[in-house]
Each structure stands twice: as C-alpha cells, then as structure tokens.
Amino acid sequence: MNRYIVECTHCKTKIEDVNKSIIVDDHRPAPYCSEKCVDSFYQSEIAHFLTQEKELRRDLQYFDKIIIDDQIKESYLKETLKDPQEIWQDTNPLGEKYYYLLSQFPYEDQTTFHFIIICKVFNSKPSFILHFTMGQDNRFINFYRTSKKIKGDEPKDGFEKEQMVIPQAILNEIQVLRSEYFAQMLERRQSEDIRYEYFPLYEKFLQETLDNPDEIYEQVENDKIISTSVKTAYLNESPFFYYVIGMKIKEVDNEVILPIFSFPTTDIELCKYFNKGQLIQKQVKS
Ligand SMILES: [Zn+2]
Fold first, then answer.
1. Residue 25 forms part of a structural domain
2. How many angstroms separate the alpha carbon of residue 17 from the centre of ligand 1?
3. Which of 151, 183, 211 is the last residue of a domain?
4. What's the whole-model pTM score?
C-alpha cells in the first residue's frame, strides 16, 4: 500500500514509480508521465515566448533573420545548451525560474550573431527548451539578458588584466600571415574534413592547445619564430587535431605566443603539411 499518490502534472495519470517520471524544473517538483505531457503542459508558455519575440521585434523595428544551414543551426543549438557563454536567470511573479542561455557565433565574415535559448533547468542541466532565437541587434539580445547573471564575463567586470601592448607592425604582420596560412589550408583541405562552418565550435580548444599541446613545432620565418601547437581532442566523441599557429614574442622576462591562425582537422596529410620546422616538444602519452 502506498501512503501517497503521485499524478502526472498534465494528464493526471497515476505515476507508480516516481523515478520513471520526467521532471524538468529544479524549483518545481512536478512529475510528468511522458515527453508528450511535458510538451502539452508548456504549450501556452511556448506560444507566449514566440509572441513575445514578435512583439519585441516590432517594438524595436528589428526584423533581420539569421539565415544558416539547418544542420549548423542544430549544432549551434547543441553547443549553446552544452556550454553557453552566458547564463541568465529570471523569476516569474510566482517564483518560478527561467534560464536564458546565450552564445555568440561568427556570421557572414566579419560579423557575429547570438544564439539565444529560454529553458528550464533540472539537475544543473537544461531540461526543456521553451524558445530559441538568433539575432544580431544588441537591443534585441539585451532583452534576453535578464535579472540575474549566472555565468559570463564582461571585460569591464572585475579587475583589469594587465595587457601587453603589441606593436602595430607586429599586428599587421600577423594579419598578413593569417591570410597566407588560411589560403594554404583551404587549398589543401579535403572535402570530407571538418566543414569550415563548424570551426567556431572548435574555438574553445585554442587555449587548451596552447596550454597543454601534444606537440610543438618551431621554425624561423622572416626573423620571426613561428610556433605550431597541436593537440588531439574530442568533440561529441569524434577525435580531431587542433592546430594553433602563433608568433613567439620575447618579452622582457618571458615568452608569449600570439595566435595567428587556428583550425581543427581530421586529415593526417594536412597535419603533415602544417607540422613545419623542428619538433621541440612532444608529450609522451601513456
Ligand atoms: Zn501525463
């Protein structure tokens, strides 16, 4: 005999085993018997956020839509869910919590756009998407930066890092080298390699590759030390190599690598091409 009964929040079907029910909200112990019931329960909220976006766009007179391939949209959505650059929290008048996830991606060379998701969170993970959209206009994006920031750093926040001043001549040189390396890579890139549109998803491996590379190659080009760091990494369980080509700059008391160009690849031939110069460091893997 059960002391209590538990029912589906939506259809009121009796739930025999609470462990098999679906819960989508950390702040609301409401069980559902199926995904279908979760969808039905939140239908009016989903419709609300859709209407809200339309009204917001009308108020701001901002109607530009981001046009990207469906597959890429799907992977940007997944990436934003998994590792958003910003997380904002908001509370409705009843005390229920809503989460806003934002991540920025490159768009039509030189510009960027924000991927924005409104969701519920359970066990510290997004559990149900109420709405998602994409936009470039700051007024539009800021609407979704709600009352409480949970994650995301702004350059103005906190103490200012001591910045190294890089001479303009070096910046110009880096710009030229970037175009050269980019052209070399495109020329040799195989069609079955990771698509260029997906590169932004791999940018998070840049720092990791510099901090903890498997291999480092160095060569001297026009009196400059060009350093190539390589790391084997995994994204969604698929292995790849991440390359960061940088210029080594000697400061008074230390050396820094200014990244020139970085890319992911699965092509051993492309790796061989970019493993230029002398191998100066190799991590032995157990
Ligand atoms: Zn149900």
1. no
2. 13
3. 151
4. 0.63
Q: Is residue 48 part of a domain?
A: no
Ligand 1 centroid, distance to 30 Cα (angstroms): 11
Q: Is 12 left (phi over 0), alpha (psi -120 to 50) or beta?
A: left
Ligand 1 centre distance from Cα of residue 2 (Å): 20
Neighbouring residues of 103: CB distance < 8 A, sequence distance ≥ 6: 76, 79, 80, 83, 84, 85, 86, 114, 115
Domain span holding position 173: 168-282
Per-residue pLDDT tens digits for 60-112: 999 988 999 999 999 999 999 999 999 999 988 888 899 999 999 988 877 89
CA of 153 to the centre of ligand 1 (A): 40
Classify residue 162: in a domain, yes or no. Answer: no
Domain boundary residue, one of 151, 180, 195: 151
The total number of structural domains that make up the chain:
2
What is the distance in A from the centroid of ligand 1 to the CA of 29?
Answer: 15
